[in-house]
Design brief:
The chain has helices at about 60-65, 65-75, 80-100, and strands at about 1-10, 15-20, 30-35, 40-45, 50. The protein has about 120 residues and is of the alpha+beta class. The strands form two sheets. It has a three-stranded antiparallel β-sheet with strand order 3-4-5. It starts with a strand and ends in a 14-residue tail after the last helix.
Length: about 120
Amino acid sequence: MYAVDLKPMHKQHGYVVVAATPILFEAAIETIIVPKTIYQVTVTFGNKKIFFDPKDGRSINSRTIEGVAAVLDARPDIADKEQVIAAFRKQALSLVRNMETDGYIYVQPKKIGSK
């Protein structure tokens, strides 16, 4: 989504976009833990949700802290991105500790192509 400056067309009905600026959204971070069932950290901003789900995540990006942090870092539409990533990492590490307390072993998957 963008904040735009519009100018009316001279000879036709309608408008022309003069300038477009991406909107920066405030992010909300939520941790959901249902012991032995659900372990998730959700980062919500605008109409987008990004999940960290080390137990049931479908992709390497959703199963790893570094994967989610990389996705968040690549987003141009998050306000205070560094603070959001730091808060996410803190909640994700807390979630992993809770998961391990419940008997799960969390192994940070190796990056593809590393030995």
